[in-house]
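ok trying again, last paste got cut off:
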Amino acid sequence: MPLAAALGDELGNLFATQHEHNGVVIRRSVSVESLIGSSGQVTGVILADGETVPADLVLVGIGAVPNVELAEKAQLGVDNGILVDASLQTSDPHVFAAGDVANAEHPLISQHLRSEHWANAVNGGPAAARAMLGQNVSFDAIPYFYTDQFDLGMEYSGFGPLTRGADLVYRGDPVSGAFIVFWQNAGRVVAGMNVNVWDVNDAVQALIRRAEPVDPVRLANESIPLGQV
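nice, full thing came through this time. structure:
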């Protein structure tokens, strides 16, 4: 399911349906055997079941792994990236790491988190620099990303590891194409996504930072401003 790793199947299906309504054919749970072509030009994709899908352009998205080779040679702590504390300091007090490669302890959830998004690098770099200068730094930016797909534009803020098995609370009707959805874990808002609803991301992040149970009925009530939930 598209975006399932970040949003779960239910919300991923919303985006998949949007693509299908716009003529995109999504093939789920298939494996690619090989690419075929001639004269340096791809002509098709052979699937594991033998089917050939015609193609004149192939985009391969295989993900990425953090490049920790240098850190390993320096004998720094490594686990799904370079382990750093909330000030982005590694196991060597003279070495700091920021960006996609840093698996940082997040002060709001007291666990390590590696965020693969440009916003993390933009915000983490200056935080690491301040820490290098001896300032008291606790990098607590909430992971954030956005995407625009056909008529759906969204912003997402939150902690992916805490959304597994969380309860979904909708503020607005998803069928309308404009709504906000929250992930609640033990009553606490751990993530939120606004779809075609704008200028609410700060309020969403404030609810996440509250780190205490929130009444889901009030959360879903559009007549109550988010700042008063």
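cool. The radius of gyration is 21 Å. The CA atoms of residues 96 and 193 lie 31 Å apart.
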